[in-house]
From TrEMBL:
Domain Autophagy protein ATG5 UblA span(s) in chain numbering: 1-26
All residue ranges annotated as the Autophagy protein ATG5 alpha-helical bundle region domain in the record: 41-96
Membrane topology note: Peripheral membrane protein
Organism whose genome encodes this protein: Pan paniscus
Quaternary assembly: Conjugated with ATG12.
Main location: cytoplasm
One annotated Gene Ontology cellular component of this protein: Atg12-Atg5-Atg16 complex
Annotated compartments: Cytoplasm; Preautophagosomal structure membrane
Annotated signal peptide: 1-17
PANTHER family: AUTOPHAGY PROTEIN 5
UniProtKB keywords: Autophagy, Cytoplasm, Isopeptide bond, Membrane, Signal, Ubl conjugation
Protein name in the entry: Autophagy protein 5
Keyword match Membrane: yes
Amino acid sequence: MHYPIGLLFDLLASSSALPWNITVHFKSFPEKDLLHCPSKDAIEAHFMSCMKEADALKHKSQVINEMQKKDHKQLWMGLQNDRFDQFWAINRKLMEYPAEENGFRYIPFRIYQTTTERPFIQKLFRPVAADGQLHTLGDLLKEVCPSAIDPEDGEKKNQVMIHGIEPMLETPLQWLSEHLSYPDNFLHISIIPQPTD
């Protein structure tokens, strides 16, 4: 319930054919394997909590705190009802930054791996280096998850996936955050073993 469906697809089924077959059980819920969602309100609260966390990283919570409760509701209702224009009218404010800053304060990201017990990696990471250079996806992985980077002369062992695509490691992290973040404003990055077929 708390992972976006696209992330689950990247982690668990990216090598399978589309459409992805999903089985929904209405009886005998697997309580030992999955978190049970108590209500629709719990999902909304979790979503808004993620939005607030992302804004704390990007803008010190200034943007989300300046919004009114109706703006928060519009974000949720736009997402829930698949109304992109309604959602984006408010979310656009969360994706802006002053031109003189060259990006967000920190990039809200989570890195998921299928080969570890740790649910995800999340650390503070600035989109711009001290010398003014834009950090790239490769820079993030080298610092936060070096095992994901394949040696230049070696065989490719991992795929780095975001929204079902494998972005180039040279892609600026700020651009990825602005254009490939999930609705919760986090960049969910999957590192999966390279398919052998």
